[in-house]
Amino acid sequence: QSSESDENDNAKSTDPLAPLEETAKVVIAEDGSASGAGFYIAKDKGYFEKYNIEVEFATFGNSDEMLPAVAAGEVDVAGGISSASFFNSIAQGIDVRFIADKGHNNEGSSYFTFVVREDLKDDITDYEDVKGKKIAVSTQNAVDHYIYNEMLKHANVSTEEVEFVLMSDFGNMMSAMGNQQIDLALQIEPLITQGENQAIHQRFLDATDYAPEAQIAMVLGSPKFLTERRDVAVRFMAAYLQGVRDYHDVFIKDIDDNGEVISIMANHTALKDEDLWKEVGVTGLNPNGYIFEDDVEKQYQFYKENGAIQGELDFDTIIDMSLVEEALDIIGTYEE
Amino acid sequence: MSKIQIEQLSKRFVKRDKYIEALKDITLTIKQGEFVCLLGPSGCGKTTLLRILANLEKPSTGDVIINQTDKKKPLQSMVFQENGVIPWLTVEENVAFGLKMRHLSNDFVKERTEYYLQKVGLSKFRRLYPKELSGGMKQRVSIARAFANDPEILLMDEPFAALDEQNKFILQEELLAIWQETRKTVLFITHSIDEALLLSDRILLMSAQPGKIIKDVAIEMNRPRSIEKVRSDPEMTKIFLDIWEQLQSEVKQTRLK
Amino acid sequence: MSKIQIEQLSKRFVKRDKYIEALKDITLTIKQGEFVCLLGPSGCGKTTLLRILANLEKPSTGDVIINQTDKKKPLQSMVFQENGVIPWLTVEENVAFGLKMRHLSNDFVKERTEYYLQKVGLSKFRRLYPKELSGGMKQRVSIARAFANDPEILLMDEPFAALDEQNKFILQEELLAIWQETRKTVLFITHSIDEALLLSDRILLMSAQPGKIIKDVAIEMNRPRSIEKVRSDPEMTKIFLDIWEQLQSEVKQTRLK
Amino acid sequence: MFKKLKTQSLPQLITISSPIFLLLLWEICSQYALLDPRFFPAPTLILTTLIQMAESGNLFEHIYISLTRIILGFALGVIPAICIGLLMGMYKYFRHFFSPIIMIFMPIPTLAMLPIILILFGIGEFSKMITIAISVFFPVAINTAAGVANIDRIYLDVAKNYHANAKDFFFKIALPGSLPVMLEGIQMGQAIALLTIVAAEMIGATSGIGYLIWMNYKAFLLPQMYVGLILISFFGYFFSLLLRGFERKLLPWK
Amino acid sequence: MFKKLKTQSLPQLITISSPIFLLLLWEICSQYALLDPRFFPAPTLILTTLIQMAESGNLFEHIYISLTRIILGFALGVIPAICIGLLMGMYKYFRHFFSPIIMIFMPIPTLAMLPIILILFGIGEFSKMITIAISVFFPVAINTAAGVANIDRIYLDVAKNYHANAKDFFFKIALPGSLPVMLEGIQMGQAIALLTIVAAEMIGATSGIGYLIWMNYKAFLLPQMYVGLILISFFGYFFSLLLRGFERKLLPWK
Ligand SMILES: Nc1ncnc2c1ncn2[C@@H]1O[C@H](COP(=O)(O)OP(=O)(O)OP(=O)(O)O)[C@@H](O)[C@H]1O
Ligand SMILES: Nc1ncnc2c1ncn2[C@@H]1O[C@H](COP(=O)(O)OP(=O)(O)OP(=O)(O)O)[C@@H](O)[C@H]1O
Ligand SMILES: [Mg+2]
Ligand SMILES: [Mg+2]
């Protein structure tokens, strides 16, 4: 399929990035998390508009709930995590793909990492201390579960020696911490910073210690979007990567843009306090769009070992970097 | 001239595997303009007979013929025991109900309704709903509705049973007044011998289940009648005691079963 | 010996800003063992008077004295118009209700209940619930309950109003039979002059609102009485017509208002 | 059981004071940290947040959007429910056909219906309204059918005796006669519509009171979440009163 | 309106055939892909899945756990609801005190209550039962109060006339007299308890029918999710029948 689209592209390569003749609408499913930075910035800075693309956000409770919408063609692009359900739905013939990075941890300041309850922060200081504790994780057989598993492996603690508490919502973890129902939780920004400020929990070491290349979130593309609307998709990706690069400039390279990116982020996410944005561990976003393919495969193996995967699938068709590559051909590669 | 002719009528109800024989071999002729009262012990089939005449029930065997003299008039209208007044219609709408159902001209409906509201003395209460009326007023509405519909015959099923004795008498008088004007054929069910004596030209007495006509008494007292006259008349007292005795023996027969 | 003494009793109801004068200056003495019927137009305050005697309502002014001869007996028990039978209790439990409320010994309750069930002919139906009873049977339960409680006086508010004429008479006979045995003091409300003539030693006639006692007639006919005797007796017919006339004029007065 | 004039204002006093009492208790508990103020922010703080949100302007947009969804979704559920309910009440074959279907679908939680709704109706406004409509449908249909079935037989006899045709029967007897019970069902449906808004606004919404509640909870902005809860509670109360008033207008004969 | 002997089996036939008809329609639509079989797996497939899950054994554990939660949570809601409802019905000051509180809390969706329940009651079994209990509480309390308030005045007069003391009044009049309306509320509460199980099992559950539904949905194992829905639907039907039977036992006088 990818070769086919290459041909498509070659036919139009005379003027690859001219705005579309007709305004195209792209619906993006989001859960309001910070990892959607690329979308938000590209929208507010007019990168999508430049290509005559109109984007619309649809918010869902979590990424699993987006899948049927992507499959049904209700949305074109979604932010999602790798999970057993994702692989299962592909096995069911729902042809969704990972098309770009939408979140990995930056070394030493992970945006998705364990936190320890405030009153236990002096008791649980190192990995071996997690033995016998109650640990809240937001999904089973998804990236959370995988990172949890990596952490335990790193700590040399078996799964039987801790209590796994499934908690459907990150907000619930805050409540459960406050109520002393759990000891540790795999929490996400900006709730990590917020909880630290409210003395609910503290960061517990860092996820990059044991899962440095964990691919946490990815951009998903609907099959229809990737094939039938290829010309829209390429422009969309180019705009998205430009948004991600602006984000990278501000948060990683510390280039000052007079707070424009931060105000966009505050506007689109639940973290409204612009000053806090300087404190939080921001989501890592690859300015070149590539994802950690090996890690995704590792996660897949993990789910499979857990018996959560039904049916076999061809891994090559799941990760589709052709769109990123096409876009990079046109906008060039970002230099660190 | 016979207005209602009932021949060899019988009615059976099926209740699970049991048959209830409600009416048996009723043969009966009622003349045009006659006011006939039907008396009988409870459960003897009076209501069933009336419902058959009203076409709300089908006879099991036998025939019922109502002589229609005017094709434009409805055959019969019924005055129900109580609660026959529709609670979500106003007094006026209730009285107009039969006419409205026949889709007559608005002017005509209005005029008829007005006339009968006046007759039963409810003009002032036309906009009220039945819940705001006393029991007697409700039955007035029911009677006005039936008369306004101007049917060939009127069927009344214990219309005054739920009223207290004094109100009952007032309504009886009113009914007689309207009836005297229109001279409709009326079949009237009651449990009260006094009521029957006051109102009717003829009293039919029914036996306990299965209902048969066991007595047919003509009441020849002059009209207009009044309770005082009925009570003071020794002839009437004789008829009363006569019917009383027979009724009592029918009732006791029911109780023994 | 006077059993009930009512002096200068009056009762006013407050309805929003309006006063309703239900009873006015009632002074009355009822002797031990007397059967008194209270007659009057609708809304004249009969029920109100009974409720005051039953301690369900407080008088506005005046006094009510019921002479208690036996401290162990309850002062009064009431038979309600209809629906007074509690639907979630069986016939037996309903009859035993008053006794149970007084927490008497089980054996005693059982024996009394049994006795009065027998009296009203409901022994066979003891385990049934009221919904399975006819109107007449329900009122029998109500009467049995009141008598079983063995009160000093019995208060009855139109107990037979909802029954048909034949059933009414059967119950009247039964009531008289039980009463003759116990000779309780009874205050009985009715709208029916015939009923009053049949049952009572004394008829009190009330005026339209505000209720006052306007006539006090002693009925001296021998007991046991029957409808036939009452109807055939010219003296009784005279009393009937007399009360009728007075009642009619009171009723008409109410309608004019 | 006795009513005196001077005591008539006491009940009103109690009625007003009980929520105030509750609020005061909450305020004190929260202020003195008897209740964890991180999770139970003081009512005064919630009120301040409410005012801030109202001033920033988009609170009214959330309210407007949710009310539109609730009202249209409600209508979308109530109208077919009344039609089917009336048919079920009037024709026994309809009743026998539909009642098992209703019995089967009624116990299925709205939350569990969301994926199916999403697949069938997408993520637009319509799917949110459908979510509300489905949850409203059942109580209204059942009550309407019960309303028709419970019309006193005597009125059917009256209609028949006076030769009412099918149309007159429907408009003069079946519809008004079933109205009181039907309105009970609608009252219930209204309550359920509000209960469902949070679930409905979990699929692809970007605004609305339900969205406000769960988005703010996800972000752990509890005062804002409580503002959402208070709004729901307020509208629940408001709609109840509205429907009661409506009922009194519609049923002058009750 | 006429009943003949031979037609009496027809209604039953229709009642049975309508769900079968629906299932057949679904099966055909799914088999011939008129409905997307990825989202609407054929009933036969769901049935096979059900059997497989039953054979593997832990289906019964899920059922057992959910039923325990539903039944205990139901009891936990119904008992205080009846007590408060009776008090509200009997004493007007109670009524005036509690009714605004009930009016305020009733419209708040269970889903929105989850965080608060979690904070107050943690993540154990108890919090799941409380979730169910809260949702059951309101309809039962309201109906109980209405039941007492609607007892015909004449029975109160009878009790007073026969000198019933407070205890007798309560057990012989107030309680049995309010029972029919109260049971209506309990029937509603039962329906709501089932509707709430999915929400309740969103807080820290690892088993139960609700967990089965949303976990399998999250894992995109739709046939398994449908098994969960069918179970809920089945138990909804079953409990309704059970309560109806119970009602007939409890109200022989109705
Ligand atoms: N629809 C029905 N199905 C079965 N039995 C019926 C039906 N209608 C009446 N019956 C029975 O037929 C008999 C006669 O009933 P009907 O109502 O005609 O008596 P009635 O003379 O009007 O009594 P009442 O004086 O009490 O009104 C009764 O035994 C009754 O139970
Ligand atoms: N609780 C009350 N509040 C206000 N007014 C009342 C109350 N009870 C009775 N009344 C009024 O007092 C008057 C007398 O009523 P009561 O019920 O005693 O009449 P009654 O003689 O029993 O009438 P009926 O023969 O119709 O039973 C009526 O005008 C009635 O409206
Ligand atoms: Mg009859
Ligand atoms: Mg009275």
UniProtKB/TrEMBL annotation, chains B, C:
Classification via InterPro entries: AAA+_ATPase (IPR003593), ABC_transporter-like_ATP-bd (IPR003439), ABC_transporter-like_CS (IPR017871), ABC_transporter_ATP-bind (IPR050166), P-loop_NTPase (IPR027417)
CDD domains (UniProt xref): ABC_NrtD_SsuB_transporters
Protein name in UniProt: NitT/TauT family transport system ATP-binding protein
Coiled coil regions in record: none
One Gene Ontology molecular-function label: ATP hydrolysis activity
Pfam families per UniProt: ABC_tran
Lineage: Bacteria, Bacillati, Bacillota, Bacilli, Bacillales
Domain ABC transporter: 4-233
SMART domains, alphabetized: AAA (SM00382)
Keyword terms, alphabetized: ATP-binding, Nucleotide-binding, Translocase, Transport
Superkingdom to which the source organism belongs: Bacteria
SUPFAM superfamilies: P-loop containing nucleoside triphosphate hydrolases (SSF52540)
TrEMBL record, chains D, E:
A GO BP entry: transmembrane transport
Taxonomy, superkingdom: Bacteria
Keyword set includes Ribosomal protein: no
Transmembrane segments: 12-34, 63-89, 101-123, 129-151, 192-214, 226-246
Cross-referenced InterPro entries: MetI-like, MetI-like_sf
Organism phylogeny: Bacteria, Bacillati, Bacillota, Bacilli, Bacillales
Pfam family, one: BPD_transp_1
Record localization: Cell membrane
Keyword list, A-Z: Cell membrane, Membrane, Transmembrane, Transmembrane helix, Transport
Gene3D superfamilies, per the entry: MetI-like
Protein name: NitT/TauT family transport system permease protein
GO CC terms in record: plasma membrane
Residue ranges of domain ABC transmembrane type-1 in the record: 59-243
Main subcellular location of this protein, as a coarse class: membrane
Membership in a protein family: Belongs to the binding-protein-dependent transport system permease family.
Topology class, membrane: Multi-pass membrane protein
